[in-house]
Protein 1
Amino acid sequence: MAEKFFWADKIADRIIKEKKRKRKYVCASGITPSGTIHIGNFREVITTELVVRALKDKGKKVRFIYSWDDYDRFRKVPANVQKDYKKYIGMPLSDIPSPFEKNKSYAEHFEQEFEEQLKKVGIKPEFIRQNIMNKKCRYAKLIKLAIEKRKNIMKILNKYRKEPLKDYWPVVVYCEKCKKDATKILDVKGYVIEYSCNCGFKGKVDFSKKGIVNAPWRVDWPMRWKYEGVDFEPGGVDHSVYGGSFSTSKEIVKEIYHGKIPIYIFYDWVKVKGGKEFSSSTGNVLTLNDVLEVYEPEIVRYLFVGTKPKTGFQISFDNDVIKIYEDYDELERRYYEKKVNPREKRIYELCQIKLSRKKPKKISFRHLITLVQTGKLKGLNKESKLRAEKVKNWLEKYAGEDMKFEIQEKIKIRLSKPEKQAMIALKQFLSTENYTEDELFNEFYNICRAVGIKSSDFFETAYRIIIGKTQGPRLASLILTIGKDKIIKLLEQVK
Ligand SMILES: [Zn+2]
């Protein structure tokens, strides 16, 4: 059975075994939209989505939720946002304006950007905006409970702290006047909080009626496990370490909320190879869109599906891109020829947004590198055209110099006598009527023997004339792709 070999199926089995008798399983994922959502965060969503798919394939009903923690405070101005945003620090992300467009909030900007990207790889969770949940006072009861048991929560948190908390309120109030969280709780009676703020304001708020409070992360997380009945959620390394928020959340959900601990797995980070311009210090983080510029959606999925979440891996932007396309095409070919093993079959199917009945007809990435640079894109089918777009982007931004070339109009080099003879012989052969790529390739060696030139010299001369470089794509294929007429015209300049 394929299920035994594939990580998401194993997790699904564990969920079914440990969370018996559930009508509908809940798989959760989420992030604070504090800035551009990067590819490391994408790993969390796709990990969840694959488990959701595994559960569904076992005939289970599943709710796939994605939580936007947009009622969190704005902590830090990212490098790609204007500096004067400092003035919003301490306000909820949902309540400050977008740095990039009118009529949108800061949170909405980054949320919508990521939601659009997720659609492209076939991921469509149910999005929950926590600012709305909080403003509608949906968690009031659970927050009240946390306040009543704040001493117990403090004890749990202090187990893992070097410096113990002395006074702890599991709730944060956003000031009614300045909208910031620079508030201090003075007293709580039932649902009514009395608070003061750094801005000088003093107020009283009934948080069952006015949603200006938020639970801090370490209480918020277990509270929402309870509220939604979460059965599965993955977490990054920062949450997963000893004493991290998962350690405390599993104690809080049981002790304070009498709720269940979800099945939890840790996922490792994703690194970038060959994409020099990405760095978080410049705010230019690697996004799903950046990856989609070079990789087809199915291949983006392939990168993540094939690696267990706890294993770190690199996304390549250098010449390895060609190899990854080739590996994927090979898997695809064997899938449709029914030559895959059960694990490979499972991986291929989970890469698909919509499984095609027939093998998609696509030109290889490698060959498209030549087609794109020789401008021979007419007559390509839709799939190959889309792939050609990826090739273009890759050539423009990431490809090694050895992969780039330009067809020459004029011969710019001096040729030795045997080189001239060889090129004239080549021109003569090209002018004959019918030959295949193989026949042309064989002819190169016939010419070398006839004029007495080393084959390496022959190839180098031809490449220098045609593309102005000492090496390039397979020569016979290159000549036929460019078209023999154009090459003949070029070689006519040899005199
Ligand atoms: Zn204030």
Note: The two ends are 68 Å apart (CA to CA).
Protein 2
Amino acid sequence: MPQRGRFTLLTIRGIPVGVDWSWFLVLFLIIWLMSGFYRDVLGVSQDSVEPYALAVASAFGFFASILLHELGHAFVAMRNRITTSSITLWMFGGVASLDREPDSAGAEFRIAVAGPVVTLLITAACLAGGVAIDGSTFWEGARFDDTASISTGVAVLAWLANINALILVFNLLPAFPLDGGRIVRAIAWRLTSNREKATIFAARLGQGFAYVFIAIGIVAALTGALFFGVWLALIGWMLGGSARETATRSKLNTKIEGLRVADVMDAEPVAIPAAATVDEALDEYFLRYRWPWFPVVDAAGRFVGLLNRGTADSVPETTRASRSVSEILDGSGGADQTVKSDEPLESLLANIELRRLGGLAAVDADGRLAGVITLEQVGRALRDATA
Ligand SMILES: [Zn+2]
């Protein structure tokens, strides 16, 4: 998904909403294509500005439609205690990036279905608005088959209703990672009570659809619909890649199922006592082991925080003998530096802190330091599991 060339437009309920540069290509295309379309529909002269105004309104309506769809996913995710780190609009639509996967089939289903429900409501609202303004003649206009009957503003509502209906149908195709594919995964998950099996099934189905999209896209491109064809083939290629990646990750998860942090960690870690002086920490730990950081434990063996080499070094030499390690800890030993030793190893795969620090303190239920687990150890366990 796009990362570079992305910039934030606004923030809604703490969620940064950004656009990728390719989104402007979409807006430009919509305005360009739609102004020609409205000129034909309304039968106005070449120099009339009205078609342009309608095309710009359509582009904004389209933007709002996609954004509301993604906000639908994000708000339901929030209700299921999953934060959305960002919403990005780009040439293939919108992406709501959730911080983690839902932990139940029900949550997965509700989050997946929320976007299409919003799109359905937008479609219904556009149709209702059109009928309210134009009465029953709106229906002929909405199909754009009797263009004489349609009035100016209503043409935009009719187009938005059509495009949202299209978005709805496309998103509900059972082609993981599209919404429909996620719904399939949620149902398979509920039926089998096995998240990984359900994911592999949905991802395989998604890969199948991806090939179909690519095939249709190529045929369309070769038979005249060049733009649509290329666009569909690219979507297929992207969905296929994403589905394959998901399937691979799920297979890996199946292989490391049953492995816990305690099975992989160093169960006899070297830890600095919180009462030690900075001098002692430097001489007996940092200079001896040459590690970038150490876990620090209190008298009862409870983990209280980390000490980085740089932090210890920055204490003026004259005070190193009198200051204790507990005064200069890095962090407070909270959840960002620790992992429970009985947690499944899988929970560490997406752990950002593990990547940043290179390791985490593994603690037992009482907060006592049980071990240290490093990125290297996790990597080795994964290699062993897949070998
Ligand atoms: Zn969606």
Note: Strands lie at 6-12, 15-20, 84-90, 93-98, 272-273, 293-297, 303-308, 338-340, 359-363, 369-374.
